[in-house]
UniProtKB/TrEMBL annotation:
Originating organism: Methanobrevibacter millerae
Occurrences of domain AMP-dependent synthetase/ligase (ranges): 90-284
Protein name (record): Phenylacetate-CoA ligase
Subunit structure: Monomer.
Short name of any one Pfam family annotated for the protein: AMP-binding
Higher taxonomy: Archaea, Methanobacteriati, Methanobacteriota, Methanomada group, Methanobacteria
Keywords: Ligase, Nucleotide-binding
Gene Ontology BP terms: phenylacetate catabolic process
AMP-dependent ligase C-terminal domain segment(s): 334-430
Pathway(s) this gene product operates in, as recorded in its UniProt entry: Aromatic compound metabolism
Residues in coiled coil: none
Keyword Lipid biosynthesis recorded: no
Gene Ontology molecular function: any one: phenylacetate-CoA ligase activity
Length: 433
C-alpha cells in the first residue's frame, strides 16, 4: 500500500526538480530569517542565489550538533514564537540538549512521513498500534502518534515500561502493530514466554523499530519471537524526529522521504561527497520545514544510498541500515570498533542471548576490552567445560570480526541490565581526556 502515490513513485527527474525548488526556498528563508545562517553563509561567501542546481548544496557549510547546542534554545527558529506549536529536545547527555520546534504545518509534515512508513508496514485504518516509544521530550512517541492518526489506525500511547501490562494490553485490546526499540522488543518477548504466553499467538502483523543500533540477526530474532515482519524506522530529533526513512515490505533499505529530507553521503574525514552505493556519513537537509530548517546536518551515522527503483514501486532513495557512527566507535589499540560488529560476532554463536555489555578499560598503558555476554538457560546448566568452549568460540568470532582480542565473560541469564529506551552497550572506563 502506497500512502502518497504521486510523490512516492515520482520519476527521478521530477523529484529532483521539486527538491531544487524546495532547497532554494529553504536556503533563502534561512539566510533571511535566521542570523546564524546569515552569518555562517556570509563568512563562507555563499548566498541563496548561488544555489542553481542540486549539486550546489555542496557550497553550503555543514551544521553539527555543536552548532545546534550553541543556538540553544531557540536561536535556529525561522518563525516568531507565536507560530511554534510544539517543542521537543534530545536527552542532552553530552552538554546542552538540542531543541526542535514545530509549527502546525511542520507537525503535519512529520505525520505525513510516518503515515508513509506505516503504510509501508501495512498499517492502516483497521489496525490497533501499540506505541512503546517514550512520550515526553523524546520525539519517538509523538512522531508515531501523529502518523498513526493520519493513516486512521487506533493508537495505544502506552509509552515505555510496565512490561507485563504491555503484554496484557496486547491480548485484551487486540493489538496488531507494535513499535519498540529492538532490545525492548526482545525483552517483551522474553517476559511473555516466561509467563507462558507465546508472542506468536498475540496476532501482531507488523513491527516498527529503531532508535538504537541493531544487526540483521537481531531483526531475525525479533521476527521469530513475534512471528511478524519487523521494519526499520530512522529519524533524529534535529531534523524532525522518526520518519526520515522507513523500510517497505521488501526490507532492502529505508526509503527516505526525499521531498521532505535531502540526503547526501560524505567521507567523514575529507568531507567530500560520495556517489551512490558508497559508504560514508549521512548528511540531511530539511526541505519543507517552517519552524526550524536544518541545512546540511552531519548525522555522524554511517550508511550508503541507492537510487535504483525499489521492487515496491517507490522511487525515493533508500539508505542501508546504519552500521555505526563516525563518532560512537570505540578506538581500541588504534583499531576502530563498533558495538554492532561485536553484536554480529555474538549472534553467530548459539547458546548465548543477544544481551551484552562492552567494558573498555586501561589498567596500565594498554586498552583492554571485556565483553560480558548472557549465557542461554540451557548452557548455564551444562557445566564448566561447555562454557569454556563457548567463551573461546565467542572470543574467536569477535577477533574475526574486529581484528582484536577481547576478554569474554559469560554471565547468568537475565543478569545484565535491560533497557526500555536506547540500550547502553558500551561502558568506557578509560580516562581519555
Amino acid at each position: 500500500m502506497i500512502w502518497n502515490e504521486e510523490i512516492e513513485t515520482m520519476p527521478r527527474q521530477d523529484l529532483e526538480e521539486l527538491q531544487l525548488k524546495k532547497l532554494q526556498a529553504t536556503v533563502k528563508r534561512a539566510f533571511n530569517e535566521i542570523p546564524y545562517y546569515n552569518k555562517k553563509y556570509s563568512e563562507a561567501e555563499v548566498y541563496p542565489e548561488d544555489i542553481e542546481c542540486l549539486n550546489d548544496i555542496q557550497k553550503l557549510p555543514f551544521i553539527t550538533k555543536d552548532d545546534l547546542r550553541e543556538s540553544y534554545p531557540f536561536g535556529l527558529f525561522a518563525v516568531d514564537m507565536s507560530k511554534i506549536k510544539e517543542l521537543h529536545s534530545s536527552s542532552g547527555t553530552t552538554g546542552k540538549p538540542v531543541v526542535s520546534g514545530y509549527t502546525e504545518k511542520d507537525l503535519d509534515t512529520w505525520a505525513e512521513t510516518i503515515a508513509r512508513g506505516l503504510s509501508m508496514m501495512g498499517i492502516g485504518e483497521n489496525d490497533i498500534l501499540q506505541n512503546t516509544h517514550g512520550y515526553g521530550m523524546f520525539t519517538g512517541g509523538f512522531g508515531v502518534h501523529y502518523g498513526s492518526h493520519k493513516v486512521g489506525a487506533a493508537i495505544i500511547p502506552i509509552s515505555t515500561g510496565q512490561t507485563r501490562r504491555q503484554i496484557e494490553i496486547m491480548q485484551d485490546f487486540g493489538t496488531t502493530g507494535l513499535i519498540f526499540t529492538p532490545s525492548y522488543g526482545i525483552h517483551l518477548g522474553e517476559i511473555a514466554l516466561e509467563d507462558g504466553i507465546d508472542p506468536k499467538t498475540l496476532g501482531i502483523k507488523a513491527i516498527g523499530f529503531g532508535a538504537e543500533m541493531w544487526t540483521e540477526e537481531i531483526r531475525q530474532r525479533v521476527e521469530e519471537i513475534f512471528g511478524a515482519k519487523a521494519y526499520n524506522i530512522y529519524g533524529l530529533t534535529e531534523l524532525m524526529g522518526p520518519g526520515v526513512g522507513v523500510e517497505c515490505i521488501e526490507q532492502k533499505g529505508l526509503h527516505i522521504a526525499e521531498d521532505i529530507y535531502y540526503p547526501e553521503i560524505i567521507d567523514p574525514n575529507t568531507l567530500e561527497n560520495l556517489g551512490p552505493n558508497q559508504k560514508g556519513e549521512l548528511v540531511l537537509t530539511n526541505l519543507q520545514r517552517e519552524g526550524m530548517p536544518v541545512i546540511r546536518f552531519r548525522t555522524k551515522d554511517l550508511t550508503k544510498l541507492t537510487y535504483e527503483k525499489c521492487g515496491c514501486g517507490r522511487t525515493h532513495a533508500r539508505m542501508s541500515r546504519i552500521t555505526g557512527r563516525s563518532d560512537d566507535m570505540i578506538k581500541v589499540k588504534g583499531v576502530a570498533i563498533f558495538p554492532s560488529q561485536i553484536e554480529k560476532a555474538l549472534l553467530r554463536i548459539g547458546d548465548v542471548e543477544p544481551h551484552y555489555l562492552i567494558i573498555v578499560t586501561r589498567p596500565g598503558t594498554l586498552d583492554e576490552i571485556e565483553v560480558k555476554v548472557e549465557a542461554s538457560q540451557n548452557l548455564f546448566f551444562d557445566g564448566v567445560k561447555d562454557m569454556m568452549a563457548i567463551t573461546d568460540k565467542i572470543g574467536k568470532s569477535i577477533e574475526n570480526e574486529t581484528g582484536i582480542r577481547v576478554k569474554v565473560t559469560l554471565v547468568e541469564p537475565k543478569s545484565l541490565p535491560r533497557f526500555e529506551g536506547k540500550a547502553k552497550r558500551v561502558i568506557d572506563e578509560r580516562d581519555l581526556h
